[in-house]
Design goal:
Structural class: alpha+beta
Largest sheet: 5 strands, antiparallel
Radius of gyration: 25 Å
Number of strands: 10
Number of helices: 10
Helix content: 25-40%
Shape: elongated
Strand order of the largest sheet: 9-8-7-6-10
């Protein structure tokens, strides 16, 4: 067994990890540095049978006698032969980040660019949602408190645990589907429902964390909001009827705007106050 030659690697989303992408199979995986060194540098396959099997399945490890270049060349010739009676159309996507080293490529010798840490984190989280078996701890409380890395399910479970510890017992983890511009459609998602008094509200810590990371302030867009608000970009099987709105950030800050006239009055008050 050997390593594929079509692998791009860079620092992972958290300290002590490495992010791998295969330009051959288009697979992506994030590994701890110690695991990466043992498998890819020390070729210690025996001690990690499950991990090695998964990496083989995704194309990061291949058989010793497998010639990737020969396969690609045969595929190219086969494709040309099948289309020799009709024109062929190609889309060229220059990247300055490819390690395929094709003989015809104009980018030979170009300095490869690296992902930003923010992009690497986003890619790792997306990959974790798509391949949960490769990132089991990302879906648990342990992922938050020990690994400092988790997806929405792990974050929601951690939020419930903290609420339980301070005596807020009526906190539930909800699983559903989310869709948001720039984040993709029909993505599996998890958040919380909280009971306050005799009423219920939604709290999506994950999305508020994501929004906060893109600006200078903490965001509370999804803190203690009703069904009407969450239904805009979240879908789930309703267990509770969430109608509480008085505990939302906007209500508590007296900035819940009901229409154009209310917005005008609110802005005037703020301008006079400042």
């Amino acid at each position: 067994m050997k390593q594929s030659q079509f692998i791009i690697e860079q620092e992972g989303s958290t300290s002590g990890t490495v992010l791998l992408y295969s330009t051959f199979s288009t697979s992506m995986v994030e590994l701890e540095n110690t695991l990466y060194v043992d498998i890819f540098e020390n070729h210690n396959y025996i001690n990690y049978p499950d991990e090695v099997a998964a990496l083989y399945e995704m194309g990061f490890l291949i058989d010793d006698d497998y010639d990737e270049k020969r396969f690609l060349e045969d595929l190219r010739i086969k494709t040309l032969s099948a289309n020799n009676s009709s024109p062929s159309y190609y889309i060229i996507c220059p990247t300055t980040g490819c390690n395929a080293r094709c003989y015809y490529c104009f980018e030979k010798g170009a300095i490869q660019k690296r992902m930003s840490k923010k992009t690497a984190e986003a890619v790792a989280k997306y990959d974790a949602l798509k391949n949960p078996d490769m990132y089991p701890e990302a879906f648990t409380v342990r992922g938050i408190f020990e690994r400092k890395k988790a997806v929405c399910e792990g974050i929601s479970k951690a939020f419930k645990l903290l609420c339980d510890r301070v005596g807020a017992k009526d906190v539930y983890v909800v699983e559903g589907i989310s869709s948001r511009e720039g984040f993709g459609n029909s993505i599996p998602h998890a958040w919380n429902i909280v009971k306050s008094g005799n009423k219920y509200s939604h709290i999506d810590v994950t999305w508020d964390l994501g929004s906060s990371s893109t600006c200078r302030y903490n965001r509370y867009d999804y803190f203690m909001i009703p069904d009407d608000w969450i239904n805009i970009d979240h879908t789930y099987t309703k267990r509770f009827k969430c109608e509480e709105i008085d505990q939302s950030y906007f209500s508590r800050q007296s900035c819940l705007i009901s229409g154009p006239n209310a917005l005008k009055d609110f802005l005037n008050q703020k301008l006079q106050k400042n």
